[in-house]
């Protein structure tokens, strides 16, 4: 089954971008949704997301916990966070699909 892709966007031909359910791409998009959402941001699900890492380090354990609670069935093998410049935090997250 095809799902709407995250972030929502249009393809080059003007159709809505989709991704195959249970694919590695779908899992990566679901994980990105968790990492890019700040705890408390979603009113109906305030525990979803991670604590904003702007003034502290990204907590790899928190990411793994949130993915296990709200994300796809994956095994996270590595999480690295580093600043490309003074204002851009880059997160490299590796996982193996569990399904």
List the SSEs and their pairings.
Elements: E1 2-4, E2 18-20, H1 24-35, H2 60-70, E3 74-83, E4 89-97
Antiparallel strand pairs: 1-2, 3-4
Polypeptide structure, described:
The protein is α+β, with helices and mostly antiparallel strands. The protein contains two helices and four strands, in the order ββααββ. It has helices at 24-35, 60-70; strands at 2-4, 18-20, 74-83, 89-97. It has a two-stranded antiparallel sheet with strand order 1-2. The protein has a two-stranded antiparallel sheet with strand order 3-4. A hairpin with a 5-residue loop joins strand 3 and strand 4 (89-97). The two termini are 15 Å apart.
Question: Which key features would you list for this structure?
Answer:
single chain; 99 residues; two-stranded antiparallel sheet; globular; alpha+beta; 4 strands
For the biggest sheet, the summary is: 2 strands, antiparallel
Shape: globular
Overall pLDDT confidence:
91
- Residue share in helix: 10-25%
Radius of gyration: 14 Å
How much of the sequence is in beta strands? 25-35%
Overview in brief:
The chain is an alpha+beta fold and 99 residues long.
